[in-house]
Design a protein that fits this description.
Layout (H helix, E strand, L loop, with lengths): L2 H10 L12 H33 L16 E2 L3 E3 L2 H5 L4 E2 L2 E3 L11 E4 L9 E9 L2 E6 L2 H4 E11 L6 E4 L4 E3 L8 E11 L10 E20 L4 E20 L4 E14 L3 E6 L5 E19 L2 E18 L2 E15 L8 E14 L3 E15 L3 E14 L11 E16 L14 E8 L2 E8 L6 E4 L3 E8 L5 E8 L7 E6 L6 E2 L6 E6 L5 E6 L4 E6 L6 E2 L11 E3 L5 E6 L7 E6 L5 E3 L7 E6 L5 E6 L6 E6 L6 E2 L8 E6 L5 E6 L2 E6 L6 E2 L6 E6 L4
Parallel strand pairs: 2-5
Antiparallel strand pairs: 1-8, 3-4, 4-7, 5-6, 6-7, 8-12, 9-14, 10-11, 11-12, 12-13, 13-17, 14-16, 15-16, 16-19, 17-18, 19-20, 20-21, 21-22, 23-24, 23-46, 24-25, 26-27, 27-28, 28-29, 30-31, 31-32, 32-33, 34-35, 35-36, 36-37, 38-39, 39-40, 40-41, 42-43, 43-44, 44-45
């Protein structure tokens, strides 16, 4: 009963944002409002009429104050916002034109804005310059040409779930995260190679580590009288990084080296709709690059630094000037470096973020974390720091602005340092030993050797086949291995060749074999056969193949000959649904069980003196290298690296060192777990073993 008086009051005294004064309905439609938008406005008038009938038509409610509406955002009179249907009807788009079914509703000078469409992945913000048939010729326009007056603010978060990572280097990997906002990368890459030879690794400057980050953005703008009055763009980033730098020999002077490790392709998205009538979509295209670099003079060094960072970084435009937004908290952690004789080097890594508005231009923000190691006559110092790189291309923001770029020093902090002590007298270098291993390269697995210093990489066999499980003969002159056509239904068969890859001979046929190993006297070969991984023995020429155990090892996790006794230590998942370690006596066929654990053990190997057994196990939840007495007592975690996966251990001939596989790279350490050293610097390496002393 109060509706009619309220509606009459509203029409007599309309609020500013509903005013239709001096316009007829036909004129509103002709001016580009469109029937659909006119009906939307009518709906708002109707809703306001109901409210007004309550507020103005009810005497009891006459004292309730009426809130002043916020001023609307006004479009420029020649701005045309395409509907989704109109956007999807665009035929093609290039830098200065697009096609439509007909151009009757377009005119020269019009500012055309669209959201994301089938042929318009980044939206449009263009000024019409001419019309030819069904082609609309355009040039770039700015936000303050499309909007006459208004203020708006939007926030958003980048999503790794919608991003596709493209590595630019082979040592860079994306790690999937359960957090859709989290970007997680692992890298192990050569920044500088003195001789430009991938086969020699001791002259390479290697950067290794990980980077985890999230990105939230804020964009705010205020436009007055077709001019950008205020603007703010801010990135809030949480970042955790770890950076290790390695060089094994002198490199001399390194000129500035910069490499792109990879980039994320993230689809354009609508950050928000500016509340004009009709709403104006604000389309953003994010680009994320990962960049690393190095500069300085360096001699052999290994150092590591990490940081946990919370950072707000951005640019604001107000009072006709740009200012920098900066707020951060940061924690560094590090391992003290082994300080070389001469060093002055800076290594850095940064994610570089670009945000394009309507696919044209926009804002760039880089967050660079670095480590700097310097040395003078009496002292050395390790510093960590953060630098911010900020830039804005204003071609789509405001007509009267100029591009702005700057870099800022956010943080430069002394992490550690010390006095330089007198050098110790020279010590005899450790003997260089040759390590045999398998490596997956170029979509197939090959067999290689490398020195224990990480140098002198040599290809033994790298064919079109899939070679695996290499092992030495007792005198180090021959190599056993398995081979089949890669990714085929063929069975793995045992072959033998000289240690230089020549004179290859096939020993088994249709056997589906794994882990061939010579007996200590070289007259026999033990191996695992079939899906159950049962132990077999044959003569060294492939004759007299016979089964020695019915104990199943369904994953073929390895075994080892006793150096003196006629016994083999092996693993089996025959009982308890987990792998335990057993020993079979080849003279009596008797089998004894050594371990009784709920965890799984793999790859057991006797020491050269037969006194201890090394193996890998997931006792701690991650696979680590262990040693124990031959009766299973006194288990000791040797590798003790809870964040890595350490498997496939093997003794050196003198029993003082262990070579093993960690996260698909080859490492070595002393038998007590000290002096860990990385041998290879690229991924997909495994099954290492020292060449026996001849």
């Amino acid at each position: 009963m109060f509706f009619l008086p309220g509606l009459v009051f509203l029409l007599i005294n309309p609020p500013k944002f509903f005013s239709i004064e001096n316009y007829k309905i036909s004129e509103l439609l002709q001016k580009g409002m469109g029937l659909e938008n006119f009906l939307k406005v009518g709906k708002r008038i109707l809703q306001a009429g109901i409210i007004s009938s309550v507020l103005y038509g009810c005497e009891m409610c006459s004292d309730i104050p009426i809130p002043e509406p916020e001023p609307p955002i006004e479009l420029y009179k020649d701005t045309r916002i395409l509907t989704q249907t109109e956007t999807d009807m665009i035929g093609y788009v290039d830098e200065d034109s697009f096609s439509v079914p007909n151009t009757f509703s377009y005119r020269v000078g019009q500012i055309v804005v669209s959201g994301i469409g089938r042929e318009v992945p980044d939206g449009l913000l263009r000024r019409v310059t001419s019309l030819t048939g069904v082609v609309v010729h355009t040039e770039s326009a700015t936000l303050d040409e499309a909007i006459e007056n208004g203020e708006f603010e939007f926030t958003s978060s980048l999503s790794s779930a919608q991003a596709e990572f493209f590595p630019s280097r082979r040592g860079v990997y994306q790690i999937k995260s359960i957090n859709p906002k989290e970007f997680h990368l692992y890298f192990d890459e050569v920044l500088y190679d003195i001789d430009n030879n991938d086969a020699t690794t001791d002259d390479q400057v290697v950067i290794e580590g990980s980077l985890i980050f999230t990105v939230d953005t804020l964009l705010r703008a205020k436009i007055k009288n077709l001019s950008l009055d205020e603007f703010k763009f801010q990135v809030t980033a949480d970042e955790t990084s770890n950076l290790e730098l390695r060089l094994l020999q002198n490199s001399g002077e390194i000129n500035y080296e910069k490499i792109i490790l990879g980039y994320y392709n993230i689809p354009s998205f609508t950050m928000g709709f500016i509340p004009t009538v009709p709403p104006l979509p604000l389309v953003i295209k994010p680009i994320v690059k990962l960049i690393a670099g190095i500069d300085g003079h360096i001699t052999p060094v290994v150092t590591n630094i990490g940081n946990e960072l919370e950072l707000n970084l951005g640019l604001a435009y107000e009072n006709s000037d740009w200012r920098i937004i900066k707020f951060f908290s940061n924690d560094f952690y590090f391992n003290p470096p082994q300080v070389p004789q001469e060093i002055d080097i800076k290594a850095y890594m940064r994610p570089e973020l670009s945000f394009l508005l309507y696919g044209v231009a926009g804002l760039q923000i880089g967050i660079e974390g670095y480590l700097k190691l310097t040395k003078d006559i009496n002292s050395w110092e390790l510093r960590g720091g953060l630098e911010g790189l900020l830039g804005v291309e204003v071609s789509v923001l405001g007509r009267n602005l100029v591009d702005y770029n700057t870099s800022i020093n956010i943080l430069d902090e002394r992490i550690t340092g010390g006095e330089i002590e007198e050098p110790d007298p020279p010590v005899e270098p450790e003997p260089v030993e040759k390590i045999l291993f398998v490596s997956i390269r170029n979509s197939n697995a090959g067999i290689f050797t490398i020195s224990s210093t990480g140098s002198n990489l040599k290809t033994v066999l790298d064919s079109s086949k899939w070679e695996n499980y290499p092992s030495w003969s007792p005198d180090g002159t021959q190599i056993l291995y398995t081979s089949k056509t890669a990714f085929s239904n063929e069975t793995d068969e045992i072959w033998i060749m000289n240690s230089d890859g020549t004179n290859r001979v096939q020993l088994t046929f249709w056997s589906n074999s794994a882990n061939p190993k010579f007996s200590p006297d070289g007259t026999q070969i033990a191996y695992q056969k079939g899906e159950d991984g049962l132990l077999y023995i044959m003569n060294s020429d492939g004759s007299d193949q016979r089964k020695i155990s019915d104990y199943r090892d369904s994953l073929s996790r390895g075994f080892s000959w006793h150096p003196q006794e006629n016994e083999i230590v092996f693993v089996s998942d025959e009982y308890d649904n987990n792998r335990d370690i057993y020993v079979v006596n080849l003279d009596t066929s008797k089998i004894r069980r050594i371990t009784f654990t709920p965890e799984s053990e793999s790859h057991p190997e006797w020491s050269p003196d037969g006194e201890i057994i090394i193996f890998d196990s997931d006792i701690t939840g991650d696979y680590e290298i262990y040693r124990m007495n031959v009766d299973g007592s006194k288990k000791i975690n040797v590798s003790d690296s809870p964040t890595t996966r350490d498997v496939n251990p093997s003794f050196s001939s003198d029993g003082t060192k262990i070579v093993y596989e960690s996260y698909s790279n080859i490492w070595m350490m002393n038998v007590d777990g000290t002096n860990k050293k990385r041998v290879t610097n690229n991924y997909n390496n495994g099954h290492p073993s020292f060449q026996p002393h001849q």
